[in-house]
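[Discussion] Sanity-checking designs against the backbone

I'm trying to build intuition for which residues belong where. Below is a C-alpha cell string of 259 positions. I'd appreciate it if someone posts a full sequence so I can compare it with mine line by line.
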C-alpha cells in the first residue's frame, strides 16, 4: 500500500510503525494525511502487526490540523471532524493490539489527541502538548474533551483547554497524561524497544485489557466485574495462556504467539 503523507513499516518483531511524514509542516494533519493514517491503521491486523508505534518525522510529532490546506474558512468547521478526524480516533481505539506513541517536539491540537489515544505515550524531554483552539475561537476536538479529563483530571484538563498554554513533557507526566519522559536522543530507541516488548506479548490479552480499561470508566463495579469475568474466560481459552502455564510449571520464560 503506497502513501504520500505517511510511512508504514513492519519490523521483524511485528511492530507496525506509522510515521507522520510531512516534516516541512511539522506534520500538520491534512484531510489526505488523516485518511492515509486511518487506512494504515485499518490494514494493521492483516499485516500481522502485534503492536502499533506512532511517531512523527522531523522536529515534532504534529502541529495539529493543517489550516493552510482548507482553501478558506468553511461554513461548518465540524464537518471535517465527522469526515476525517473522528473516524481515525475511533479506528485507533478499535485496534485489537497495543498502541505506543513516541512524541518529539510539538504535539498540538488534533495531533495531541492522536498521541494521547495511544495506550502508552513516551515523550522526549523537549516535547510539549498544546490545545490552543481557544486562541482562534474554537473548541478542542478529535476526542480531546473526552481524553484529557480522563487522563489529567477535570481541573487540569480545563486549565489546559481554556488557557491554551503549552504543557511541557515533564508536566504532562506529572499530570498523568503520559507514561514516560526520556532524553530526546533516546526517544526513538526506547519507544521501539517498548513496542517490540509489547509485540512479543499476549496480544489477545492486550486487546481485552484495552477494551476493559475504556469501558470500565462508564460502568458500575458489578458490571465491570462481569465484563472482567467474560474477558478472562476468553483470555483463558487462548493458546498463549495454555503455553504460558506450561512454561511457568517448567520454570521457563513463556513465549507468546499472539493466539
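Best answer:
Here's mine. Compare freely.
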Amino acid at each position: 500500500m503506497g502513501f504520500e503523507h505517511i510511512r508504514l513499516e513492519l519490523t521483524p518483531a511485528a511492530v507496525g510503525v506509522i510515521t507522520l511524514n510531512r516534516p516541512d509542516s511539522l506534520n500538520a494533519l491534512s484531510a489526505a494525511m488523516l485518511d492515509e493514517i486511518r487506512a494504515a491503521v485499518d490494514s494493521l491486523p492483516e499485516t500481522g502487526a502485534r503492536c502499533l508505534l506512532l511517531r512523527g518525522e522531523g522536529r515534532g510529532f504534529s502541529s495539529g490540523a493543517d489550516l493552510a490546506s482548507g482553501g478558506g474558512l468553511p461554513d461548518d468547521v465540524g464537518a471535517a471532524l465527522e469526515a476525517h478526524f473522528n473516524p481515525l480516533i475511533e479506528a485507533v481505539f478499535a485496534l485489537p493490539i497495543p498502541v505506543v506513541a513516541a512524541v518529539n517536539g510539538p504535539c498540538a491540537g488534533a495531533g495531541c489527541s492522536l498521541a494521547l489515544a495511544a495506550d502508552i505515550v513516551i515523550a522526549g524531554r523537549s516535547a510539549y502538548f498544546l490545545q490552543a483552539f481557544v486562541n482562534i475561537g474554537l473548541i478542542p476536538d478529535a476526542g480531546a474533551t473526552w481524553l484529557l479529563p480522563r487522563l489529567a483530571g477535570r481541573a487540569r484538563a480545563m486549565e489546559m483547554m481554556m488557557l491554551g498554554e503549552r504543557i511541557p513533557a515533564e508536566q504532562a507526566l506529572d499530570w498523568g497524561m503520559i507514561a514516560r519522559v526520556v532524553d530526546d536522543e533516546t526517544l526513538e530507541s526506547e519507544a521501539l524497544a517498548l513496542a517490540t516488548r509489547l509485540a512479543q506479548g499476549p496480544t489477545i490479552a492486550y486487546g481485552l485489557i484495552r477494551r476493559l480499561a475504556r469501558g470500565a470508566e462508564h460502568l458500575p463495579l458489578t458490571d465491570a466485574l462481569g465484563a472482567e469475568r467474560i474477558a478472562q474466560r476468553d483470555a483463558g481459552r487462548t493458546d498463549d495462556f495454555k503455553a504460558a502455564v506450561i512454561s511457568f510449571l517448567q520454570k521457563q520464560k513463556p513465549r507468546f504467539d499472539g493466539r
